[in-house]
């Protein structure tokens, strides 16, 4: 249940649900560097396009150094896909954003912004699955030895072990697909039980249509024995990122991080302008000279953009060359939507989230927002969960009416045995377009074409997930912004496209360039104009 002694809260002028006032933190602002690499940054503002994790990080670091900066955000709320949506006081996190990183400077910045509002939370998540006899079970993840033995039982444990042993001794043959790669390392039985259904929901195709190289990249360091070792002996040092056991989290959800950073930017003299969709980047030769956004025209010294590559190509004037526009039009994205349901009674489960490995329902994951932070749910007599559906913008699921989506989500909760319809109080739907840049068979060539063109614009740099068309987390997005600011302020020569949050820089790009699809599906969004 929720903490009965939670502080009161209110709505601010931006409509954000914020905590009770805290003692003011001291912001440290330094003079601009004497040897500023681009002196024109003192006269004209740096424009940052997009107020997600990357854009706000860039804005904050520039404002701290007394450099004029304006952050332009298309929506009425900061945070991008890492925002926290608030409806009737209930807060929900789009996609689930745990704050864990191997990059010290990112971790230090998180703590600098959040201070005492940064909670250390236990990571509790389980896999929902049905065994061969149709019985529903929950398996702890990270794996725990006693739980595995108890939940699987001797029959299924024997199946898993025999399947694994057979996989180790049989000829491997071709290993071209996700299905083959995982089956060879975990055995066919574990693949069918714990990899197939969820992966197909996330990417919208059969696991036989997903490349093996992508499996090797995303299932970092995991194998049958590494998972078993973690289950029985723990995962000291968090060496395998997929198996961390605790993480930091802002008291009021990830959006609190970005809202606080926004407030700090403004206190430091910068500006964050909401409802300012960028509609045109005017070029004069090899420079951006004017930016049109929200009915205003800005003249920048430098431009740091976290806008999707597709959009950037679509809004430049004069237009980008034909081959660049063609490359941008071919970029694809996987989208998702969250259906948040408020239910009467206690939490449905204690987990942060559960993975739904059941092919009979469409939902991929269900979040319990109170388990992320008790302050996410204002009423201790109510539960609030978020059902996450992976889809393509424009497909049947994406296009359903909100009421129908709420009905679908409630029906699937009942089908899963987690709640009954009479408990439903109300529901909300939030769609998240361009949530995951897709790595199809041609994406690397397309990005290379766009990158080569971008490098000819001397005062425009791309950062962030969609800005680089890189499927990675908030810490990576922030790190790209940090390196971009260092380049502009100090004249360093970081290759933003090579920044990687696992090793800071990676020498070989093959891992991050691996794409999941053997044959990527066509999507309705590809028919839309570039600037949409």
What keywords describe this structure?
globular, five-stranded parallel sheet, disordered N terminus, alpha/beta, Polyamine Oxidase, Chain A, domain 2, 532 residues
What does this structure look like?
With 532 residues, this protein is α/β, with parallel strands linked by helices. It folds into 3 domains: 9-87 and 99-121 and 251-330 and 443-513, FAD/NAD(P)-binding domain (3-Layer(bba) Sandwich); 141-234, no CATH class; 333-437, Polyamine Oxidase, Chain A, domain 2, CATH 3.90.660. Helices cover 33% and strands 23% of the residues. It is built from 18 helices and 24 strands. The chain has a 7-stranded mixed beta sheet with strand order 9-8-18-19-20-17-21, sandwiched between helices. Strands 11-4-3-15-22 form a 5-stranded parallel beta sheet, covered by helices on one side. Helix 1 (53-64) packs parallel to helix 17 and helix 3 (145-169) packs antiparallel against helix 8 (224-233). The protein is globular and about 70 Å long. The two termini are 43 Å apart. The model is unreliable at 1-17 and 503-513 (pLDDT under 50).
């Amino acid at each position: 249940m929720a903490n009965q002694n939670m502080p009161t809260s209110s709505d601010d002028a931006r409509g954000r649900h914020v905590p009770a006032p805290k003692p003011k933190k001291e912001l440290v602002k330094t003079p601009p560097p004497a040897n500023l690499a681009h002196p024109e940054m003192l006269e004209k503002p740096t424009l940052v396009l997009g107020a997600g994790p990357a854009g706000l990080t860039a804005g904050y670091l520039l404002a701290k150094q007394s450099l004029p900066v304006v952050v332009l955000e298309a929506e009425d709320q900061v945070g991008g896909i890492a925002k926290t949506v608030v409806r009737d006081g209930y807060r929900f996190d789009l996609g689930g954003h745990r704050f864990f990183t191997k990059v010290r400077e990112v971790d230090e910045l998180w703590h600098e912004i959040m201070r005492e509002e940064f909670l250390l939370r236990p990571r509790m998540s389980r896999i929902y699955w049905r065994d061969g006899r149709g019985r529903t079970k929950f398996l702890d993840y990270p794996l725990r030895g006693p739980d595995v033995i108890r939940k699987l039982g001797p029959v299924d444990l024997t199946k898993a072990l025999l399947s694994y042993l057979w996989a180790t001794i049989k000829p491997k043959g071709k290993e071209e697909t996700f299905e083959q790669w995982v089956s060879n390392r975990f055995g066919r039985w574990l693949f069918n039980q714990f990899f197939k259904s969820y992966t197909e929901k996330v990417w919208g195709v059969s696991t036989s249509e997903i490349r093996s190289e992508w499996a090797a990249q995303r299932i970092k360091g995991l194998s049958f024995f590494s998972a078993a070792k973690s289950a029985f002996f723990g995962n000291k040092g968090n060496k395998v990122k997929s198996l961390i056991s605790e993480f930091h989290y802002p008291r009021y959800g990830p959006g609190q991080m970005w809202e606080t950073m926004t407030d700090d930017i403004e206190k430091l003299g910068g500006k964050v302008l909401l409802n300012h969709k960028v509609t045109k980047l005017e070029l004069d030769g090899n420079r951006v000279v004017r930016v049109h956004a929200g009915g205003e025209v800005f003249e920048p010294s430098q431009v740091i953009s976290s806008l999707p590559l597709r959009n950037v190509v679509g809004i430049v004037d004069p237009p980008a060359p034909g081959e660049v526009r063609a490359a941008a039009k071919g970029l694809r994205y996987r989208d998702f939507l969250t259906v948040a349901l408020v239910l009467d009674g206690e939490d449905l489960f204690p987990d942060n989230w559960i993975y739904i490995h059941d092919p009979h329902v469409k939902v991929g994951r269900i979040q319990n927002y109170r388990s992320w932070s008790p302050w996410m749910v204002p009423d201790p007599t109510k539960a609030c969960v978020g059902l996450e559906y992976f889809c393509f913008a424009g497909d049947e699921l994406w296009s359903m009416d909100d009421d129908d989506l709420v009905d679908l989500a409630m029906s699937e909760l009942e089908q899963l045995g987690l709640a009954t319809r009479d408990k439903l109080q109300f529901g909300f739907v939030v769609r998240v377009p361009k949530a995951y840049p897709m790595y199809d068979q041609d994406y690397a060539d397309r990005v290379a074409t766009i990158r080569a063109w971008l490098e000819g614009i001397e005062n425009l740099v791309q950062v962030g997930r969609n800005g680089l068309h890189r499927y990675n987390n908030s810490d990576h997005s922030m790190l790209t912004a940090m390196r971009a600011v260092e380049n502009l302020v100090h004249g360093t020569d970081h290759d933003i496209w090579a920044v990687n949050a696992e090793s800071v820089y990676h020498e070989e790009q093959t891992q991050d360039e691996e794409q999941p699809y053997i044959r990527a599906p066509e999507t309705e969004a590809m028919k839309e104009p570039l600037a949409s």
